[in-house]
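DM from R.C. (forwarded with permission)

"hey, sorry to bug you on a friday — could you get me a structure for this? deadline for the figure draft is monday and I only need the backbone to look sensible"
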Amino acid sequence: MILIQAIIRPEKTMEVTEALAEVGVHGLTKVPVIGRGQQSGLKVGDISYKDMPKEMIQTVVEDHQKKEAVEAIMNAARVGDGNRGDGRVFVIPVKESYNIRSGEKD
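My reply, with the result:
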């Protein structure tokens, strides 16, 4: 199993969740987050915004779904031909998981 964690622009959340559904990934968690990446914030005139609002989407997929899921996120989250601040995708191996209700190991 693979945990895919994507930090994206908030306005791209619906497009990303729909793109994931199209490749068969329906279970996910969405969390609003604040932070900064390589762009180190945003400067508008004399005002600097060091931290930017983003959305974090997490989903766990089977190993064979990884490529399709990552590509779906990347394509749906990108603005135009790509811009600073479009986001980041992390792919993390999951050794085991447990169902809380039943106690079963997946």
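R.C.: lifesaver. Residues 66-77 form the longest helix (12 residues).
me: no worries. Residues 2-93 form a domain with the Alpha-Beta Plaits fold (CATH 3.30.70.120).
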